[in-house]
C-alpha cells in the first residue's frame, strides 16, 4: 500500500478520530506485528501537538499462548498496576487511539470458560475506566488495518499479497480514507447524520417494531428520555471526535425490560477469536429466554450468561443498506466493519449518553430508569435488505420510517 495513503490514514485517526489537542497525552494501542503503522500514528500525534505519546504494544500470538498454557487461576485475576495505569492516564485527560489488525480465528479452540473468566475479571476491575469511555468523558478512537490472517479470511481465494492489497483497498474505502482530503470527507460525513438523528429524537418513539425476511419479529421498547446519536461525539469539554472509524450507525438506548420477540442474526459474530454462526434469540420482558447457534453456541452463552445484564439489550442501531460498507457486500469477520454494514443490536451495557442526563446518574439509577448494565457490550448484526421498522409513538400512533433496509423520510 502506498506510504502516502497510509500516512493520511494515520493522520485521519489522530486529527478526526481522536482529535488530539495541543499539549495532550496520547496512548496508542497497537500489535507488535504492525509497529510500522503505530509509528506513523505516533508521528502524526506529535505533529498535532501531543505532549507525550505512549505506545501500548500487544502481541496476539502471545495472548493465545497464555490462554492455552497459563495456570487456570490467572484468568480470575486482573493486576492492580494495570488499573492504576489506566487511572493515571485518564486523570491526565488522555486520548486513546486503538489500532486493530486481529485474526478472526485467533482464539479458536481456546477454552471458552477461560475467555469468560478473563473477560469478567478485567471488566470488573476497570469499571471506572469503562464508565469514562462509554459516557464520552474522555476521547478515544478505533480503526482497523489489514493483517495476513484477516485478509485471507475475507478473501480466501487470493494469494496472501493480493488479499492484503484488496483488504487495504476495502479498509480505506469503507473508512472514507481513500480520497484526496479524508479529514474534510469526514467533516462532510458528519453532517449527513444530523437530519436522521433530529427526526428520530423529535418523534421520541416509545418502541420500535422490527421485522425481516430471515424471521426477526421483535418489538424493542426504548428507554424513557432516550437520545438518538450518530456520527461523531463530544467529550466533557465539547471537543468533537469519532469513536469508530468507519461509522455509519445511528443508535439509542433500549429499555432493558421491554424487548419481546425473536431476533435472527444476519451475519456471523466474531467474538474473542471465535465465530458464532447461525444464531438467534427469543426475548420476553427484555430478557433472553432461549437462544441457539449452529456453531460456537457456548461462546454465545458466555455473553448472555456473563451477568444479569448480559442477556438484555443495551443498544439498538440503524444502518442503511446504502452505506459504503453495505455496498461492498463483503463479510469482514470484524465487528467494527460488519456492524457498519448492517443494523444491529447489542447485548449488555448501555451507553449512558443515550439518555438525557444519563452521564450524571449512578449505575443503580440508570438501571432503574431502563438502561442496562453489564460487564459486556457485544454488537450483533440482524439487518437485512428487506428490514422494515415501525415506530410506536407515546400515544400508540404507528409510523413506518424504515422500509427494505432504507430510511423513508
Structure in words:
By secondary structure, the protein is an alpha+beta fold. Helices cover 34% and strands 27% of the residues. It contains 13 helices and 20 strands. The chain has helices at 3-17, 35-47, 60-69, 80-91, 112-125, 127-134, 148-154, 160-174, 182-203, 297-304, 324-328, 335-338, 363-368; strands at 25-31, 52-58, 95-100, 139-144, 207-211, 217-222, 229-230, 233-234, 240-241, 250-252, 254-264, 269-271, 274-284, 287-295, 313-318, 344-348, 377-381, 388-392, 398-403, 406-407. Strands 5, 6, 11, 12, 13, 14, 18, 19 and 20 form a 9-stranded antiparallel β-sheet that branches. A 5-stranded antiparallel β-sheet has the order 7-10-15-16-17, covered by helices on one side. Helix 1 packs parallel to helix 9. The protein is globular and about 55 Å long.
Q: What is the residue-mean pLDDT, rounded to a whole number?
A: 94
- Please state the overall shape, judged from the principal axes of the Cα atoms: globular
Number of helices: 13
Largest sheet: 9 strands, antiparallel
Give the helix proportion (percent range).
Answer: 25-40%
Oligomer: single chain
Query: Which regions are unreliable across 5 or more consecutive residues at pLDDT < 50?
Result: none
Strand content: 25-35%
Intertermini distance: 40 Å
Q: What is the gyration radius calculated from CA atoms?
A: 20 Å
Number of E-state strands? 20
Content-based structural category: alpha+beta
